[in-house]
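so my prof wants the structure for this chain in the tokens format not the other one, which i didnt know existed until like an hour ago. anyway here's the sequence
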Amino acid sequence: MFQFKENQRVTRKYFQSGPLQLSYLDYGGEGSNVLLMLHGHMGDAKTFSELAPRLKGWRVLSLDQRGHGWSDHPSDRDYTRESYLQDIYRFIQSELHGQQVTILGHSLGGANAYQFAAKYPELVQALVIEDIGVIINSDMSFTETLPNHAGSLKQLRDLLTKSGVKSMDYFMESIFEDETGWGFRTDLRGITTSVQHINGDWWKDWMTSICPSLLIHGGKSFVLDKDQAELMAERRANTKLAHFEGCGHGVHLDDPEGYYVTVAAFLEEVLAQR
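here's what i got, hopefully its the right format
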């Protein structure tokens, strides 16, 4: 075990998903309700480390999705939609014995969350979707130009800046140091493949599930525009929209307190409906 802060004990665990060993963090927590957190591209299970211990009445788990964090990188760059969803399914079956979960997902994790709910509605209690739409057209090809290692942290930051990264703090979460320098835990050469698979029109998946959902939108987001966010909330039943005017794509980073208050209030409503 290790600690992020006083009295917050977190356990790193592993499970098998097909040929891959995947990692996750168990933040513990009270109650029988499970909140599963899914990060975005270049993130990892620690993305929500400030939020997780504050959520009362939930056992909080956070997954390193394939190719990220401490999870294996698929040698064949298998980042299809189906493979991401099967990872979540196998996690729930092997680690939670098929227990229903609420899923909070950012960006890639958000798309994985609502698509998983469409395919396995019996396993999903509620959704929190942060700043990802149903018409996705992303480009992260710049990751192919990033080096596996840099001599210093400053050099790596400078390379990210020159690549046009708009949310430095978010991308810095994937960085680690070893004896050769500073690098990324993320499978940099697989990101473009993953993005190619997530791009598309996913209205059908969004509309299929009917569980309570909270859609969080950053007013300065470069991924999800306000019109699409409002249409998503309008067209899907049982969906609330929370708009953060001054935030970008990473609302949980730009306004952590407002994000916590909004998510916690929604989760309290979910518990009250049980």
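also thought this was worth mentioning. Residues 11 and 73 are 21 Å apart (CA to CA).
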